[in-house]
Design brief:
The protein has 15 helices and 13 strands. It is of the alpha/beta class. The chain folds into two domains: about 210 residues, Rossmann fold (3-Layer(aba) Sandwich), CATH 3.40.50.720; about 90 residues, Oxidized Rhodanese, domain 1. The chain has an eight-stranded mixed β-sheet, sandwiched between helices. The protein has a five-stranded parallel β-sheet with strand order 9-13-12-10-11. Strand 7 and strand 8 form a beta hairpin. The two termini are about 45 Å apart. About 0% of the residues have low confidence.
């Protein structure tokens, strides 16, 4: 950032920061010198990136391998209808540069994974985790702890949000709170369970505030505290969390020494074969039936003609309604709950069971008349 001098554009741009005693000129210069890695340019990443750019954070590194989808526009405010199909990272960078040309933005159209996690974290002073999967949250946490960087972590689902700062010296990490990822079938995503659009703005704004506080060295960051936001009942509370001496990552005798290493459950053996769309067509032609295990509120968005509909949550109680002599292709919206349901059928003695890989969204993408959004 250029020096802030009387009458300069920078003086006017950041004047409301300069008026705050806790920020002032020195604080604004600290913001200008900071490098922040933001993982995810979606619902949480949109407000995080916008507010950090507006605040004058000198360099933003944004990584996201996704493209803009029409369903994103309900909450991902960096994009508009014309952006559908465009790479999120690149389009986000364009918007941020337009918002504040003084900020350098590195757009990485890639997936944050074990091959690049530590290298990317190493580049930044601070990491903001705006991802939307448990797999990535654990990866971000592990990389931050191993590289000695703080992780401003946020998550949202339906009306509920939570955030904390992990990986700070003496503070807990994400694994202190949640030692292992939960089983895949028990974790519905926003694309399955939904999310109130404005909640992304609330939690993302909180994350941006925590990032700015950490860079400036002011206030009381959410280190050792988990902030819980209930947007439905308009309640906010925080709970204390402490570093676990037995934590596999940050404890006194850690067993995790690199990203992607142990301390996670082995995925269950998959004894139910997957079908792609061509396989589905062939199975249906031979008399198979689709078993739709979406919940009723999901089916309200679109029915599957000819399918048997039993929600995954009611499957145990309604197994007697199914015919063990029939062939079933089990499907849900994106293929998570349906994998568990297909395995459960197999365990219950159903011999002709298949799982629709990639879920009903893949079918909808192929057939424009079939809508399960």
């Amino acid at each position: 950032m250029r020096a802030i001098t009387p009458g300069s554009a920078e003086l006017r741009r950041y004047s409301r920061h300069l008026l705050i005693p806790e920020v002032g000129l020195a604080g604004q210069q600290r913001l200008a010198a900071a490098r922040v890695l933001v993982i995810g340019a979606g619902g949480l990443g949109s407000p995080v990136l916008a507010y950090l750019a507006a605040a004058g954070v000198g360099r933003l590194i944004v990584i996201d391998d996704d493209t803009v989808d029409l369903t994103n526009l309900q909450r991902q405010i960096l994009y508009d209808t014309a952006d559908v199909g465009a790479p999120k990272a690149e389009r986000a960078a364009e918007r941020l540069r337009a918002l504040n040309p003084q900020v350098a933005v590195d757009a990485l159209r890639a997936r944050f994974d074990a091959s690049n996690a530590r290298e990317l974290v190493r580049l930044a002073d601070l990491v903001v985790d705006a991802s939307d999967t448990f797999e990535t949250r654990y990866l971000v946490n592990d990389a931050c702890v191993l590289e000695g960087k703080r992780d401003v972590s946020g998550s949202i689902f339906r009306f509920d949000g939570q955030l904390s700062v992990f990986g700070a010296p003496g503070g807990p990490c994400y694994r202190c709170l949640y030692p292992e990822p939960p089983p895949e079938h028990l974790v519905p995503s926003c694309s399955e369970g939904g999310v109130l659009g404005v909640l992304a703005g609330i939690i993302g704004s909180f994350q941006a505030a925590e990032a700015l506080k950490l860079i400036l060295g002011i206030g009381e960051p959410l280190i050792g505290r988990l902030l819980l936001v209930d947007a439905l009942d308009a309640r906010v509370r925080d709970v204390r969390i402490v570093r676990d001496p037995a934590c596999a990552l940050c404890g006194d005798a850690p067993s995790i020494t690199d990203v992607g290493s142990p301390a996670r459950r082995e995925p269950p053996a998959r004894t139910v074969p997957d079908l792609d769309l061509d396989g589905l067509d062939a199975a249906l032609a031979n008399g198979a039936v689709i078993l739709d295990v979406r919940e009723p509120h999901e089916r309200a968005l679109g029915e599957v003609p000819g399918a048997v509909a039993i929600p995954a949550t009611a499957l145990e109680a309604r197994l007697h309604e199914l015919d063990t002599a029939r062939t079933y292709v089990v499907a849900c919206r994106i293929g998570a709950k349906s994998r568990w349901a297909a395995q459960r059928l197999k365990e219950a003695g159903f011999g002709r069971v298949y799982h629709l890989r990639d879920g009903l969204l893949a079918l909808a993408a192929r057939d424009a008349s079939f809508d399960v959004f």
